[in-house]
Amino acid sequence: MHKVEEVDVMENLIEANRRLAEDVRRLLEDHGIKGIEVMGSIGSGKTALVEELIKRNPDVSFAVLAGDVVSDYDEERYRKLNVPVVGLNTGRECHLDAHLVEHGLEHLSEEVDLNDVDVLFVENVGNLVCPTDFPLGMHERVLVVSATEGEDVIPKHPAIVKAADVIVVNKIDLAEACGVDVDALVEAAEEINPSADVFAVSVKTGEGLEGLERRLLG
Amino acid sequence: MIIDTVLEVAEREGASKILSVEIRVGELTMVNTEQLKFCLEVLSEGTPAEGASFKLETVPGVFRCKECGHEWEARVEGDDPALHSVFGSDLAALLGERCPECGSRDFEIVSGDECTVVSMEVEKG
User: Fold this and answer.
1) Is 0.90 exceeded by the ipTM?
2) Does residue A130 contact residue A46 with C-beta atoms inside 8 Å?
């Protein structure tokens, strides 16, 4: 005779990621590292922004975890800047999670003494949806969108906007050509997330990068 | 991850078959319950969870005002079709929401951001 039983589980899987993220945060703090996650859509300029911040700050010791579904294109780009980098391929997943970042840090520690790293950038997979639910334990969550994505990109993705500490509106040099009002993008971001700091920049021309730099690295 | 958790618990409990699983999904997560249910059914094939009934319950989003501390439940109202997705997600409430007490736009999420395996019914022996 089979016996049927009710079993209590109460396992919150999103909370499980948050707990791992707290472990990652402790590890960063033990080594005096400031962690910055960079989220954003595909082609918004996440890699270009991180590259530019690295190039403009030769006195800061950077390291990078470069997340992508497959390929090592971004990893190679960072490697050219002579910074320690580990590529994180999710394989199928559309976002990084704290568990992957923990492994990434293990690999990174084989390339560099973590005590020598000042700032760690973690570039998430290009996606404005799923990364929202999976904080990685970084001190700042930076969202990058670009003027070329259109004026609606912010209100179309309110959850990730709400989750960000810093919001970057990139490619303002192309805004006019795209018929996009940069002020409207900035206002939409401030409307949804009044706690975030919003910066309108062009990674290409350097416009607006100083303020962002002060906020993130100052 | 959900299936891993379910199978681990079943093994720990010495269960031979999983009959049902109760899962709570927050309205403010990026989880689509219809897709999740389908995925769970596919993933459970060939495991003791095959054929189990996956009961998905949604938990409403709750916000807390950072200015006055007032808490309220996210609710999508009005006639704007953009605010009514097929699944009626509370995520739309993140747009233009204000504290009903003091009118502040600065609020945080206090619940509705979970994905919890609550309990399961198993067969032993």
Assistant:
1) no
2) no
